[in-house]
């Protein structure tokens, strides 16, 4: 077996011991929920409403509009329209509403002939609207409440809010006069509305505390439909109300900028929003009804919900119901679970590149591994295959992995004693957060890995991993009662005759030119049904610690935890682990092909690899390269034709009809002029900083044109300007940022963005009361936005404040000119401060970092999970061809789910404080991570003793990577980094 050309590190961290984190399968005792009969898919009535607010920081209800609709063959048609306004609205604005209502030209938008007809708009106070329209529609008619960004509008109707029992907001909509005091109190005759946000697109909304359930139609928890969520579920897309109207060819919003005051134009604007929302409801209903399943639209929370519904309509039984798999085996599979591979291999060095991308990677891997046979099997078993796996790996050649039959034998898990094998390693690389790197791993304790990862290691190292034991997932028979269905009502699929994963992708290709909405729907179903649902776990914070059983490989323990993870409906860890491992194997095969040709790659990102390549090939200057060019270190750029040959090689594995999907590994469109594959190929240049932080561009002289810009690590910032750049598939400000970064980094011509010296702020939604527990200002209501300024430890905090005793927030404003003068509040003590761009002599200002500073720091982000070209740790100024780190496993710690993607999504304060749930052993001894030990290497023991108050023996133990008490290490860490 031929190893890669990657040079071995000249200076490694072989003697550095890291804690290794592995995923766990957990079991907690929970009461089952009773299964109630489903209500009609679409109720007879819906109530659509929208609220307009004041433009100050509180965003209090000003007024709103609503429509009540009844279902007919033509869709939902309006039978009542009206307006409502805040209970404390001033007299002048109230008269404006009355005048508007009395004007004969502002007639209701009646779509159904009724007698007597409604001749003018109804007008209510908020309290009257809630009682006479909102509750009446739900209680008497079983109406579904519909809106766009519904949690925000519901919270505007609330008169009181508090934390719900299991997280989220509990909203009070109704008050009554107290018989005892004569004052207003919560009306116990009316339920509360509970909203628990999952993310920026999805929230779970229900009623609770219903006093007399018999008076409410089923479902008694109420029905609430946010069309923003339904659109996401249908098309895997997030857009505005106007954006969705454009997609469906509907008349959308009026061209009007809200003023926060009541006027005829403002009322017309609000009514138009309700009309647009109702029109969008009917359009989405027609699309939703094309899908032949019984999923309720108000329970379609994501594309995965749609995919699950198709598995159910094909009558595929849930894995946990039909497969008798032990918790230990599920724990083995979860220990082998890692996400997609993403890394930077050449850092801060511009190189010519060709970007290649695998077609529908996870559906492809499912097809290659035969996972559809497992999911449709009558049963599955785990059988010993230790000897077979040892033989398979011992005789492995790269060519074997291009045989589809070889992939059918990779559905196994093996217990391995790693000895410098290249494997996924989840550890703390930068001293702060967990990350996953594909690195050299050595361990005295055996660890379970998925079969494809072991094949990948053998390809990349040229040696066979030491297998202690191996077990194979074996499907048994075919489940009875499988049913045919029609995807999107138009594409027939037979679960017995068709491989779901292949069929969906093939049919997407069939229809992508003639029926784009259908093709997009098929793509959404195929992608969302190929991976995430099989590893879905939902974390829940309990009122008191729950008894949890933890299984991870050879680890089995029990303890009480305040946070539990509940397995999703289609959770089946063996398939999930094999899917992502298969994706990493495809990348390893591609990496090996490039290495065998003498080449290198700039980065890889889940399903793509960016190869160093030019039209004629040749040497490219690059620190750490194995070649020499004019006395300098260099790497080899492959010819474009060599990249084509490598891409074509993967067609041997193509599980699809080649007439429909001709290429398994594609040369991406951005490699061609105007990103059009029908035109000539152009030279693209790549520049990478760290995993997922890269830019691709073309260059003519000193002018550059960005063709692909990664926004990873920037998406959490509120944009300093609006706009989207279609060419680079990124926000306009991100493209401008990369243009400026490249200009400074490479000495090229660039334009300095006007927004560089604006404060860097995160926009966060108050989606949960847990986000701001103390000193919440009165203006910060549920689901209001606010800013979290990013402060420097050097001069960002007022005198007496630091990271440990302050947490500043500011009111949200979309007006960038106001940012420099916002008022901040310290949530830890309630004190107020003014925001400023520079500190003053009194040191009484909150001074956020500017975008200029943030971007300079962004450029200095190291690739901590790799080594520099000379084998030393990768730091901010490291350039060139990086090497893999060598990790020695210390304690192996089971953990819960990761949430790395939150940094791309923003609007979630949990990302500031998030900690991965750890299921550590009962003993309280830990080892300091290598980064901390590097920090204190140059500091004398006596200085550290004075700084921390710890003994010489304890300091020396920490420096020597010996176990110390967890509390001791925590206090040491706080002291040295103060």
Question: What is the CATH class of the domain at 47-291?
Answer: Alpha Beta
Helix content: 25-40%
| Largest beta-sheet details | 11 strands, mixed
Round the mean pLDDT to the nearest integer and report it: 91
Structural write-up:
The chain has 978 residues and is α+β, with helices and mostly antiparallel strands. Among the domains are: 47-291, Nucleotidyltransferase, domain 5 (2-Layer Sandwich); 761-849, no CATH class; 923-978, no CATH class. The protein is built from 26 helices and 50 strands. A hairpin with a 5-residue loop joins β8 (160-163) and β9. The relative contact order is 0.12. Mean pLDDT is 91; it is low at 1-14 and 900-913.
Short recap of the structure:
This protein is of the alpha+beta class and 978 residues long.
Task: List descriptors.
disordered N terminus, Nucleotidyltransferase, domain 5, 26 helices, 978 residues, six-stranded mixed beta sheet, alpha+beta, globular, eleven-stranded mixed beta sheet
Topology:
Blueprint: E1 17-23, E2 25-28, E3 45-53, E4 61-72, E5 75-85, H1 91-102, E6 122-125, H2 126-141, E7 144-147, H3 150-157, E8 160-163, E9 169-172, E10 175-177, E11 184-186, E12 192-197, E13 203-208, E14 224-226, H4 227-235, H5 241-248, H6 264-289, H7 303-313, H8 319-322, H9 327-335, E15 342-344, E16 346-347, E17 351-358, H10 361-369, H11 371-375, E18 379-384, H12 386-394, H13 404-407, E19 412-417, E20 419-428, E21 434-442, E22 447-450, H14 451-461, E23 466-476, E24 485-487, E25 491-493, H15 500-511, H16 516-528, E26 537-552, E27 555-567, H17 573-596, E28 601-605, E29 608-614, E30 618-621, E31 627-629, E32 632-639, H18 640-649, E33 665-667, E34 684-690, E35 693-700, E36 703-709, E37 724-725, E38 730-731, H19 732-746, E39 761-765, E40 785-789, E41 808-811, E42 823-826, E43 832-835, E44 845-846, H20 851-859, E45 866-867, E46 880-881, E47 883-884, E48 886-895, H21 902-905, H22 910-913, E49 925-926, H23 930-936, H24 941-948, H25 952-959, E50 964-965, H26 966-976
Parallel strand pairs: 1-48, 3-7, 5-6, 7-14, 21-48, 29-32, 43-44
Antiparallel strand pairs: 2-26, 3-4, 4-5, 8-9, 9-12, 10-11, 12-13, 15-28, 16-46, 17-29, 17-33, 17-34, 18-23, 19-22, 19-23, 20-21, 24-25, 26-27, 28-29, 30-32, 31-32, 34-35, 35-36, 37-38, 39-40, 40-41, 41-42, 42-43, 45-47, 49-50
Helix pairs in contact: 4-6, 4-7, 5-6, 7-16, 9-17, 10-15, 10-17, 14-17, 15-16
């Amino acid at each position: 077996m031929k190893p890669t050309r990657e040079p071995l590190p000249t200076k490694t961290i072989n003697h550095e011991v890291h804690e290794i984190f592995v995923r766990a399968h957990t079991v907690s005792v929970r009461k089952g929920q009773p299964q109630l009969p489903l209500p009609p898919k679409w109720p007879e009535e819906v109530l659509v409403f929208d609220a307009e607010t004041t433009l100050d920081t509180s965003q209090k209800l000003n007024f709103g509009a609503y429509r009540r609709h009844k279902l007919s063959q033509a869709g939902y048609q309006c039978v009542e329209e009206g307006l409502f306004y805040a209970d404390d609205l001033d007299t002048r604005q109230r008269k404006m509403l009355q005048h508007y209502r009395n004007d004969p030209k502002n007639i209701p938008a009646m779509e159904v002939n009724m007698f007597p007809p409604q001749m003018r708009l109804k007008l209510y106070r908020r309290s009257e609207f809630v009682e006479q329209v909102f509750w009446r529609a739900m209680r008497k008619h079983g109406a579904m409440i519909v809106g766009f960004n519904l949690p925000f509008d519901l919270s505007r109707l609330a008169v009181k809010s508090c934390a719900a029992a299991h997280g989220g907001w509990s909203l009070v909509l109704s008050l009554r006069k107290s018989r005892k005091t004569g004052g207003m109190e919560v009306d116990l005759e009316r339920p509360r509305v509970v909203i628990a946000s999952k993310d920026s697109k999805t929230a779970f909304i229900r009623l609770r505390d219903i006093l007399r359930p018999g008076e409410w139609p089923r479902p008694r928890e109420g029905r609430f439909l946010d069309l923003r969520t339904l659109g996401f579920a249908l098309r895997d897309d997030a857009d505005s109300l106007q954006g969705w109207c454009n997609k469906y060819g509907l008349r959308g919003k009026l061209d009007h900028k809200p003023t926060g005051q009541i006027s005829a134009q403002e009322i017309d604007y609000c009514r138009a929003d309700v009309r647009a929302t109702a029109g969008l409801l009917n359009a989405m209903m027609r699309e939703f009804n094309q899908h032949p399943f019984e999923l309720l639209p108000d329970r379609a929370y994501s594309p995965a919900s749609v995919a699950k519904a198709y598995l159910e309509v094909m009558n595929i039984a849930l894995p946990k119901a039909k497969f008798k798999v032990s918790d230990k085996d599920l724990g083995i599979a979860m220990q082998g679970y890692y996400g997609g591979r993403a890394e930077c291999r050449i850092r801060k060095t511009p190189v010519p590149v060709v970007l290649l991308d695998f077609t529908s990677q996870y559906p492809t891997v499912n097809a290659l591994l035969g996972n559809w046979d497992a999911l449709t099997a009558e049963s599955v078993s785990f059988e010993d295959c230790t000897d077979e796996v040892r033989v398979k790996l011992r005789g492995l050649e790269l060519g074997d992995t291009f045989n589809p039959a070889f992939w059918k034998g990779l559905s196994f898990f093996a217990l391995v004693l790693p000895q410098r094998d290249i494997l996924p390693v989840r550890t703390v690389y930068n001293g702060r957060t967990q990350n996953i790197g594909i690195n050299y791993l050595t361990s005295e304790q055996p660890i379970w890995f998925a079969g494809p990862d072991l094949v990948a290691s053998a390809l990349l190292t040229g040696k066979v991993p030491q297998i202690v034991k191996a077990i194979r997932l074996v499907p048994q028979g075919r489940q009875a009662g499988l049913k045919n269905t029609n995807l999107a009502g138009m594409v027939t699929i037979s679960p017995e005759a068709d491989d779901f994963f292949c069929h969906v992708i093939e049919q997407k290709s069939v229809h992508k030119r003639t029926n784009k909405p259908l093709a997009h729907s098929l793509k959404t179903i195929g992608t969302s049904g190929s991976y995430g649902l099989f590893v879905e776990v939902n974390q829940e914070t309990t009122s008191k610690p729950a008894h949890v059983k933890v299984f991870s490989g050879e680890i089995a323990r029990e303890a009480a935890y305040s946070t539990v993870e509940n397995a999703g409906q289609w959770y089946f860890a063996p398939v999930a682990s094999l899917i992502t491992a298969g994706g990493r194997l495809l990348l390893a095969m591609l990496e090996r092909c490039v290495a065998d040709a003498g080449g290198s790659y700039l980065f890889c990102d889940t399903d793509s690899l960016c190869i160093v390549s030019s039209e004629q090939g040749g040497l490219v200057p690059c620190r750490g390269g194995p070649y020499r060019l004019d006395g300098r270190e260099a790497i080899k750029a492959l010819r474009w034709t060599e990249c084509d040959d490598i891409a074509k090689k993967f067609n041997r594995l193509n599980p699809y009809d080649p007439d429909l999907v001709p290429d398994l590994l594609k040369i991406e469109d951005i490699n061609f002029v105007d990103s059009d594959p029908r035109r000539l190929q152009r030279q693209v240049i790549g520049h990478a900083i760290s995993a997922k932080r890269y830019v691709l561009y073309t260059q003519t002289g000193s002018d550059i044109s960005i063709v692909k810009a990664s926004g990873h690590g920037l998406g959490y910032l509120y944009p300093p300007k609006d706009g989207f750049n279609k060419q680079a598939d990124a926000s306009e400000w991100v493209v401008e940022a990369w243009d400026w970064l490249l200009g400074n980094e490479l000495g090229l011509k660039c334009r300095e963005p006007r927004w560089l010296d604006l404060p860097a702020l995160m926009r966060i939604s108050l989606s949960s009361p847990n986000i701001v527990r103390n000193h919440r200002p009165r203006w910060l209501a549920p689901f209001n936005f606010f800013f979290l300024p990013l402060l420097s430890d050097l001069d960002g905090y007022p005198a007496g404040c630091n990271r440990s005793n302050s947490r500043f927030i500011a009111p949200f404003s979309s007006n960038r000119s106001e940012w420099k003068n916002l008022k901040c509040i310290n949530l830890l003590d309630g004190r107020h401060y003014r925001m400023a761009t520079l500190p003053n002599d009194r040191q009484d200002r909150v001074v956020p970092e500017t975008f200029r500073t943030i971007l300079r720091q962004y450029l200095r982000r190291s690739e901590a999970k790799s080594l520099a070209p000379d084998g030393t740790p990768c730091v901010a100024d490291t350039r060139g061809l990086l090497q893999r780190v060598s990790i020695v496993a210390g304690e192996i710690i089971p953990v819960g789910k990761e949430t790395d993607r939150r940094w791309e999504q923003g609007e979630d304060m949990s990302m500031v404080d998030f900690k991965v749930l750890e299921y550590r052993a009962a003993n309280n001894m830990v080892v300091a991570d290598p980064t901390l030990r590097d920090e204190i290497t140059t500091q004398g023991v006596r200085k550290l003793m004075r700084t921390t108050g710890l003994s010489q023996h304890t300091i020396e133990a920490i420096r020597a990577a010996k176990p110390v008490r967890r509390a001791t290490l925590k206090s040491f860490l706080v002291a040295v980094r103060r």
